[in-house]
Amino acid sequence: MDTLTQAALGAAVGGAVLGRRLGRKAVLIGAALGTLPDFDVFLDYGDAVLNVTEHRGFTHSLFVLTGFGTLLALLARRFAPARDITLGRWWAFFVLCLVTHPLLDALTTYGTQLWWPLDMRPSAWPVVFIIDPLYTLPLLVGIGFAMATGNGFRGPAWGLSLSCAYLAFAMLAKGVVEHRLEPLLAEYGIEDAPRLVQPTPFNTLLWRATIIDGDDHYETLVGLFDGTEPPLLEVFHRGAELEADALALEKGARLDWFAGPYLRYEVRRRDGRETLVATDVRLGFPGFYAFSYALATREGEAWQPLEPTEMVTPDTRADRDALGQLAARVFSPEARLCTSDFVTDRWVADVPEAC
């Protein structure tokens, strides 16, 4: 999630745990702790693939943050002027303010290495977009009340309760969307294919489903207000014939570890040379993919790894009007939004007649 939201979450948690005893101080310290795990954005690994795959790494580990929170609790118990606060309460304060950050991040699409240093793929159970005003606003109102009145508990506790209720709604909405998808996927025979269901930007009413089946990359939008209107399933090429070449590269394998099957491959001409490019189709929107990486250049019949890898601009014809169309689609299934409208034609395999 964005920095403001993480600061607000840490502040609300801090107020809920120690607001009665520390007042505004609990809110301010909680806000600082809530943003701390994101200091890794300042780390530059000198390589585009490493920068994206190492983010939300060791600084988001539940093991690391719990250990660090325990250390802070011991120091606070020993040196803080508030001698009546028990070690257990200090521990709950520091650990919860820290670990709620990666736990919230894990509810977005990007993926969070909760179990670092264990060799496990990043955890991602996307139910909220990386910026969602309806999640953040109750937290901000609650901590604003705390700062204005000096009551460090009541406002943050209410804000935290409302934001958690919103997450519960988002989880329920995702369940409804997945239920509506089942007949469509069964019709295409892809009910067992890897799928990713995530909210579209800034809301939990309209959801995007991405399904990968070999070289086929399926996309559809499903809204809670769609009623009996069936989803439109569009099919795109994924460039799977290049996947083996990409996975043979160290950075290509690293990107696959990070994004799983949700990668598109293509050969692009850059600086007069053929370049193998991988695009993460989870992050962004068809026509608006933000994360593409140049992995290798062709030398004769072989691919020569790029050192370092580079982030490149995707070759699309997307325009910003799509965001307005997306907003209209939230409440109106009649406002058909075909993602193929924003994707270069060479990637389109099949679109419904309604598009």
From TrEMBL:
Sequence intervals crossing the membrane: 57-75, 87-104, 124-145, 157-177
Keyword line: Hydrolase, Membrane, Transmembrane, Transmembrane helix
Record-level Gene Ontology MF annotations: hydrolase activity
Pfam family, one: YdjM
Matching PANTHER family: HYPOTHETICAL MEMBRANE SPANNING PROTEIN, MEMBRANE-BOUND METAL-DEPENDENT HYDROLASE
Protein name: Metal-dependent hydrolase
